[in-house]
Amino acid sequence: MHRTTLSHWPACAATFLLFAASFAHGQNFTLLHTFHCTDGDSPYAGLVLGTDGNLYGTTSSQGSNPQAEGTVFKITTSGEFTTIHNFIGPNDGRSPTSTPIQDAAGNLYGTTDNGGSVGLGVVWKITPAGHETIIHSFNRFTDGWIAPSDLVRDEQGNLYGVTSAGGDPACAGPFGLKGCGSVYKVAASGALTVLHTFDGSPDDGSYAFGGLIRDSAGNLYGTNYAAGLYGAGQVFKIDPSGNKATVHDFDPGVNNDGAYPDADLTVGPNGVIYGVAGNGGDMSVCTGTGPGCGVVFQIDGDGILSTIYSFEGGHGDGSAPDGAVAFDAAGNLYGVTFTGGKDNKGTVYKLDTAGNETILHNFTGGKDGFAPHGRIYVSGDGTVYGAAGQGGFGCGTIYKITPQ
Question: pTM of the full predicted structure?
């Protein structure tokens, strides 16, 4: 279904979308790590909590080896930092932009945008001892290339993800890329199955960037950044048989609908799907950077998409929300915006269950970094852990925000 509404979450969204953002008092912002490029650069993927209670992430370039083109790292919640792997070509992956996932045995899995046997990206596995295995190397038109998304894993150990380009060579993807991308499944053996190849038509989409989520019935949900009925992306569903259905086509011509989503979806504590779109929303703001400043949305069990918050940008609010949203034990929602805020360097925000927004941190571009991006982790008590892709000493930061 494709209807866009203003949701009740539980208060009427038409009311809380008018509120100006408030700013948190008593929040303690702490830098856990500042990247110096010699230990990695540009941690755009964000962070995920491992089974051992530590946080894991990737940097998209450089590392502790002079030849490194990206890293996998571990950091404790108190800031003890360890580089787990340096990506060094040519057969290794290069430029990871996905957050790792972890299985019960502590093995990490992820993707890279480049590298591998033909230089078009890989799916990798790293054991707790630090041994890396390339599970699959992408080869462009048979399975896709440029794999920027987080993976999702099923009970049998199969991995699922998307590519942003490749697949159908007849499809002219966005940004000059060949092919419009694919949805794939990788077995533990490394055998890859293409579940869907995007064709860039109004009935389909292209340039899937955000990772997939999987429900209890085995259905996969994700987003396309481009194409769709209105050319501004869509939310899609892939059933276990590989049949693709459109859940929602984003329409930037409709006030308060989103546009151009490029982040992972999240299943909230109520079982509802949540996500962000970097544009769209209130069409009277951010007019110079695209249609609107972006939105947070939800999709209910009937497939109805509702905008639950529309960003205003400028000094008083964030703009261009990015990365998967997260929840605390009380059901409050958290996320980051790539730009906007007091210094236009991005924000960390919180939406309470009535839809009221609080800015937890305005990035300054100084020691705290700027351009927060990717997945954040929120503990049950509302402590936020995340990464800023740039700043600090120029190569990004990892931070913690503790409620007081």
Answer: 0.91
